[in-house]
Amino acid sequence: MAEPAVFSCAARLEEVERLAAHLRRCGAALHVDNVAMIDLELALVEAANNIVLHGYAGRGDGTIGLTVDRLGDVLIMELRDGGVPIPSSVLSAHLPPSLDAESGRGIAIIRSCIDEVGYSQEGGVNVLRLAKHLPKPPAA
């Protein structure tokens, strides 16, 4: 894939599977191994669910954009949305939440699956960047 693969869907829980299916297609085209794909898909689904439930508060009137790209041995996913920004306290928390915590479990799951998590706002658009270092293929 010469250009990053871009996909978007409505910000509704029932649409999150379409994002995951797009990631699986990209992963196959980019030769990502199955173990890494499990982590990538789990992180994507958690992030997309958080966008729907917290960013758009379940309204279903927004969109989620997903860009998937591979740069060497790193797979990068960028999710874009126009919902409520992620509170800085959520991203800066370094301790996992307690099991009975009301929030924070999603970002903890994402961090356990992904090597680098970045967040910015660009022109009122939230951009969540998730990067996963991929294992080197076995020598031939």
UniProtKB/TrEMBL annotation:
List residues of the Histidine kinase/HSP90-like ATPase domain. Answer: 10-132
* Coiled-coil positions: none
In which organism is this protein found?
A: Sphingomonas mucosissima
- EC? 2.7.11.1
Q: According to the UniProt record, what class of enzyme is this?
A: transferase
This protein's gene is called spoIIAB
Domain of life of the native organism:
Bacteria
Output this protein's name. Answer: Anti-sigma F factor
Alphabetized Pfam families for the sequence: HATPase_c_2
Listed GO molecular functions?
protein serine/threonine kinase activity
Alphabetically list the UniProt keywords. Kinase, Serine/threonine-protein kinase, Transferase
